[in-house]
Write a structure and sequence with these properties.
Blueprint (H helix, E strand, L loop, with lengths): L5 H12 L3 H7 L4 H9 L6 H7 L5 H24 L19 H23 L4
Helix pairs in contact: 1-4
Length: about 130
């Protein structure tokens, strides 16, 4: 029941219940079923979920990183469309936990964005 991260489970239970439920189980104050229910329903931001994920980022941090990436791309697109030369220099992506090969991810995103920019330029300047 405690899985691969027993210390994180214990810490999360103490933090979220205010009691040492594992010690309480061994004293007979908490049933095994109650302990299982508590462990299975720990909130997503608990120590056990962070231990399993291998990082401290929550959904908010991932959304913020995605927002920063998109705003940077929009700013660069706006600059490229309104000023000569119409070339795009994409800003680097915000690094996220678990990004094994950031260079490959950035290259893929840059290639996709470059193609989108060329498509926009073709549509905006049909005679060029």
């Amino acid at each position: 029941m405690l899985g691969d991260h027993p210390e994180a489970v214990e810490a999360a239970l103490i933090f979220h219940t205010g009691q040492d439920k594992i010690a309480d189980y061994w004293r007979g104050g908490t049933s095994l079923r109650q302990l299982r229910v508590l462990v299975e329903n720990l909130p997503p931001d608990s120590a056990v979920h962070r231990a399993v994920a291998g990082h401290d980022w929550r959904a908010g941090e991932f959304l913020t990183a995605a927002l920063v990436d998109r705003v940077g791309q929009l700013v660069e697109l706006t600059r490229a469309m309104n000023f000569e030369p119409h070339t795009v220099t994409w800003p680097p992506l915000v690094l996220r936990p678990g990004d094994a090969d950031v260079a490959a991810q950035t290259a893929k995103a840059t290639a996709k964005a470059d193609e989108a920019m060329r498509d926009v330029m073709r549509q905006m300047t049909p005679g060029r």
